[in-house]
């Protein structure tokens, strides 16, 4: 049976927002730059951009925020609007399929408004081209009619600030990237920063938590505030049902064990992949498809859902000969790595060596 029967998008450790996240996130979002935890460099740079714009009394340059999901791009866009005392309009690349959709949004903006365009790399080509002119000249050409009779009607736009967000900055065409005056690269959060995020959210949710309890949740949150907030809610449930509601490190650990999120933030799918790699293939190298069959999953699920975090954590490496486990992987699962052939004490290695899988890349 698949170790992960449900949709991988429903994992408790996914960085994408689920329905419950969306419902509670509004209450947990920091409202001003000073309340925003971590991302020191982006915060400092952005603070300068905003202060300068306020001083000049003009709309600031367009801002691009890039980084993995759940790190606070939407939150920062709302903070930008709040700091500028400006209204914000929120939309996303996939919602803008036709240039006309974008023209409708742009032409209804008010002066100084912030337009947040999430997943900007997923906009259609014609809309993207319209955006170039809008960003640079605050003007769009609206095409009326079709074929040889079509005419372009120029439309002046009020000055506005575009905040684009993308998980894939590399996919943005250079002409679009170049039109942003400031790009903020969001990094995964350090455990101490996530501990502060958990504490802050616990206060807002009226959950009593001790510092070590917050540290326990932070350590399992994969560097991502959205995951930290989600784990906090599950730990709160456990603490309220099984205990007196206070979150201690022991209670946090017990609760997250129930949800199968281990001390390093790996879930059942991540561990199944690592266990197969170590126990069945002696740590590799093994091809992706062989590894996927061994865990009863599609290759894409292993490659796109489990591997990025395992690679980031330094537990698994992708090589031209296939996937290999690192020393940290053996250590994490409490297993002893085989001794390389030709060295003394090869006994365990040969026993496991017989199980080594094919060594093709895929
Ligand atoms: N620096 C931070 N301090 C406190 N909370 C944060 C911080 N960054 C993010 N959060 C919390 O994490 C949650 C997710 O943040 P947000 O929606 O801004 O992420 P995102 O990068 O826009 O994700 P996506 O790309 O999936 O839209 C929010 O509820 C917010 O409260």
UniProtKB/TrEMBL annotation:
Task: Specify which residues bind DNA according to the UniProt entry for this protein.
Answer: 318, 323
Recorded hits in Gene3D superfamilies, A to Z, give: 1.10.8.60, P-loop containing nucleotide triphosphate hydrolases, Winged helix-like DNA-binding domain superfamily/Winged helix DNA-binding domain
- InterPro entries xref list: AAA+_ATPase, AAA_lid_4, DNA_helicase_Holl-junc_RuvB, P-loop_NTPase, RuvB-like_N, RuvB_wg_C, WH-like_DNA-bd_sf, WH_DNA-bd_sf
Is Nucleotide-binding included in the keywords of this UniProt record? yes
Lipoprotein as a keyword of this entry, yes or no, is no
Segments carrying the region annotation (Small ATPAse domain (RuvB-S)) are 190-260
Q: Where does ATP bind?
A: 28-29, 70, 73-75, 136-138, 179, 189, 226
User: Which residues bind Mg(2+) per the record?
Assistant: 74
Using the record's annotation, list all stretches that form the AAA+ ATPase domain: 59-192
* Large ATPase domain (RuvB-L): region residues: 9-189
* Matching PANTHER family: HOLLIDAY JUNCTION BRANCH MIGRATION COMPLEX SUBUNIT RUVB, PTHR42848
Q: What is known of its domains?
A: Has 3 domains, the large (RuvB-L) and small ATPase (RuvB-S) domains and the C-terminal head (RuvB-H) domain. The head domain binds DNA, while the ATPase domains jointly bind ATP, ADP or are empty depending on the state of the subunit in the translocation cycle. During a single DNA translocation step the structure of each domain remains the same, but their relative positions change.
Q: How does it assemble?
A: Homohexamer. Forms an RuvA(8)-RuvB(12)-Holliday junction (HJ) complex. HJ DNA is sandwiched between 2 RuvA tetramers; dsDNA enters through RuvA and exits via RuvB. An RuvB hexamer assembles on each DNA strand where it exits the tetramer. Each RuvB hexamer is contacted by two RuvA subunits (via domain III) on 2 adjacent RuvB subunits; this complex drives branch migration. In the full resolvosome a probable DNA-RuvA(4)-RuvB(12)-RuvC(2) complex forms which resolves the HJ.
* Name of the featured protein: Holliday junction branch migration complex subunit RuvB
What is the species listed in this Swiss-Prot or TrEMBL entry?
Answer: Kitasatospora cinereorecta
Q: List the lineage, top down.
A: Bacteria, Bacillati, Actinomycetota, Actinomycetes, Kitasatosporales
**This protein's encoding gene:** ruvB
């Amino acid at each position: 049976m698949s170790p992960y029967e449900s949709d991988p998008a429903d994992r408790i450790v996914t960085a994408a927002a689920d329905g419950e996240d969306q419902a509670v996130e509004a209450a947990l979002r920091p409202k001003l730059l000073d309340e925003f935890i971590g991302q020191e460099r982006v915060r400092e740079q952005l603070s300068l951009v905003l202060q300068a714009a306020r001083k000049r009394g003009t709309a600031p340059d367009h801002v691009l925020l890039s980084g993995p999901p759940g790190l606070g791009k939407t939150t920062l866009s709302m903070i930008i609007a709040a700091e500028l005392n400006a209204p914000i309009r929120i939309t996303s690349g996939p919602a803008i399929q036709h240039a006309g959709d974008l023209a409708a949004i742009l032409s209804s903006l008010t002066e100084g408004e912030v337009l947040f365009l999430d997943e900007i790399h997923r906009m259609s080509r014609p809309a993207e081209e319209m955006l170039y002119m809008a960003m640079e000249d605050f003007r769009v050409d609206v095409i009326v009619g079709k074929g040889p009779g079509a005419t372009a009607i120029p439309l002046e736009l009020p000055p506005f600030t575009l905040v684009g967000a993308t998980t894939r900055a590399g996919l943005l065409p250079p002409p679009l990237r170049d039109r942003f005056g400031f790009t903020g690269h969001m990094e995964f959060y350090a455990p101490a920063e996530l501990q502060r995020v958990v504490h802050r959210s616990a206060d807002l949710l009226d959950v009593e938590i001790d510092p070590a309890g917050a540290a326990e949740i932070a350590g399992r949150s994969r560097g991502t505030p959205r995951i930290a907030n989600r784990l906090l809610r599950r730990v709160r449930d456990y603490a309220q049902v099984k205990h007196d509601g206070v979150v201690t490190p022991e209670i946090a650990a017990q609760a997250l064990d129930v949800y199968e999120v281990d001390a390093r933030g790996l879930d059942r799918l991540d561990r199944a992949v690592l266990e197969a790699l170590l126990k069945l293939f002696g740590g590799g190298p093994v091809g992706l498809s062989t590894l996927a069959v061994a865990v009863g999953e599609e290759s894409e699920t292993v490659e796109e859902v489990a591997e990025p975090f395992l690679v980031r954590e330094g537990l698994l490496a992708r090589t031209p000969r296939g996937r290999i486990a690192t020393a940290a992987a053996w250590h994490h699962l409490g297993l002893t790595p085989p001794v390389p052939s030709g060295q003394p004490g090869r006994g365990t290695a040969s026993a496991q060596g017989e199980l080594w899988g094919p060594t093709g890349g895929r």
